[in-house]
Each structure stands twice: as C-alpha cells, then as structure tokens.
Amino acid sequence: MSEPSRVLVTGATGFTGGALAAKLSAQGCQVVALVRRGADVQKLQKLGAELVIGDITDATAVSTAAKGVDIIYHIAAVYRSAGHPDSYYEAVNVGGVKNVIAAAQQHNVRRTVHCSTIGVHGDIKHIPSDEQSPFNPGDIYQVTKLAGEQLFADAMGQGLPGCIFRPGAIYGPGDLRLLKMFKQIDRGFFPLFGGGKNLYHLSYIDDLTDGIILCGEHSAAPGEAFILCSNEYGSLRELANIIAAELGVAAPKFAPPVWPLMMLARLCEALCKPFGIDPPLHTRRVEFFVKSRAFSNAKARRLLGFDPKVSTEEGVRRTVVWYRENGFL
Fold first, then answer.
1. What is the pLDDT of residue 278?
2. How far apart are CA 100 and CA 121, in angstroms?
3. Does pTM top 0.90 for this prediction?
4. Which CATH number fits domain 6-173+202-229: 3.40.50.720, 3.40.50.2000, 3.50.4.10, 3.40.50.10320?
C-alpha cells in the first residue's frame, strides 16, 4: 500500500463522505472536498480540507476539484426522496459519474473509487449473495445507481484505474437514516409489518470507511467490485430486539400484515407525485419490511484484507450513545 498525499472526496458533507474525509485527514492526507454552495462545511473546515464550491453535475467544478489529486473517492449521490423527479436522480447518480470519470482521465488520477450500493441486487433470492449475484434494482434510486456503476465498470474496462464498492445499510454515530426506527422502538411502538422475517445487512461506519480506504490503496483493488458489509446479518426482528435491549425497552411484538400498508403507500404516491408533493408514506419504506438483504463480504476479506470489527450489538450501542448525547433520543 502507499499513502496518498492528496485525495478528493465527493459527498463529503454527507454521513459517509464526512466520516471518510475525517479518517483520511487523520491519516495525514490532504483532503479536497467538492461541496455545494450553501452546504454546512464547518466540520470540513476544522479538518483543514480544501473546499471546491460546485455540484457533482457540473463537469467544470468536478474537473477543478480533481486536479492534482492522487485518489478520488466518489461518494456523492442523491438518495431516495419523492421530492426529486427521476431526471434529478439521473443527473446526479449517472451524470455525476460521467463527470468523475472524465475528470479522472483528464488529470491522470492514480485511482478512482466509486460508491455503489447493495441495492443494485434488489430483493435477493440466494442467501448470502455476493458480487456475482444478478442485478435487480427496484426503484429509481437503485436503477440510477446501477446505471452509474455500469458506466464506471465500462470505464475500468477501457483502462480507468479504479474499483467499485457496494455498502450495506450504513449506520453508526452521525447517521440519521435509522433514527426513526430507534425512536419508534424507544417509544414502544415499532410495528414489524410482515413479521420482521426479512434479512437486513448493516455496514458500521468505521468498518466501512476502513474498507473504502482499502479500495483506494490496496494493489488488488483495481478493476474489481466489492461488497463491504458487516460479518453478520440477521432478520429485521432480531435487529429490533438488539436495539430495544440497548434502549432498555420491551422488544417489539406487534406484527400486522404488510399488504394493507403497501396498498396505502401506492395510493399516497399516486396522489402526491403528480403535484410534486412528498407523500407521507412511500412504497420504499414499506419494502423495508419485506425485502431481504444478506451478503457475503468474503471477496473483500480475501483480496483486500477487509476486517470488520464492530458487531451489531456494539454498533447499536455506540449509535444509541451518540443519539442520546446529541438529543435525538
């Protein structure tokens, strides 16, 4: 391995990108961050990061940020939100990848690491699945993330030095995506629609950022795609029970059928989407209770030495501590 002196992180004001930027800075790297105008950059400024103002959809801004860097970590993406039209997902999750590829080629960047998602595999059929499992995206986020990944894979096939990683459900101190689940369990009402039998695979943020840096530095990484998940997975009910135990509350018991909720979600989206209104209930939120996610990280362990150290119990404990210290629970 070699330690780069200058790295670009896109999406550095987000949870994963921010944690990655902090770890790279702590390791002695000069971090360059492409940030949108008006974004909260206080944490990046404390790191001493070099800030380049611009959007991932702006090819000129991406090129400016990439000039003179050794490695690009492309984390920026638009996640699920009904407030965005499909064209916005395409502009960010596909068009942004095009801009990163072009910038990396223009400036002869030594390596480019692209963040995809295990969601490109959709509702998996074989457990645990791996990097060779079929693609089966189920929504516009997953469809555009897959398109971006395939674009990047094509560029690698044509000589771009880089690799792809697909993280599981990212969580840990600083994350707010799973906060609603923690809050509901803490309040004593988290319905396990469908019984909570579906499998859920997590990626603890510290372990994940270790894996991402391995993708950027390890000699075995170029040209490959890696799933970066925790060593263990379990059912949604099991995860809810772990969270409840850490919170010191009763484990969720109420397990209503899922189909009425799914019908209501589809109706909400049908009524709200034409008017650009964010519906109170999304089908993707219902699918959280239905679709299974369970993967093997064996390839990353074998080729990169990826070694997740944080168990689900310990990760949940650290997350609860952070939520409480910051007034979220």
1. 74
2. 24
3. yes
4. 3.40.50.720
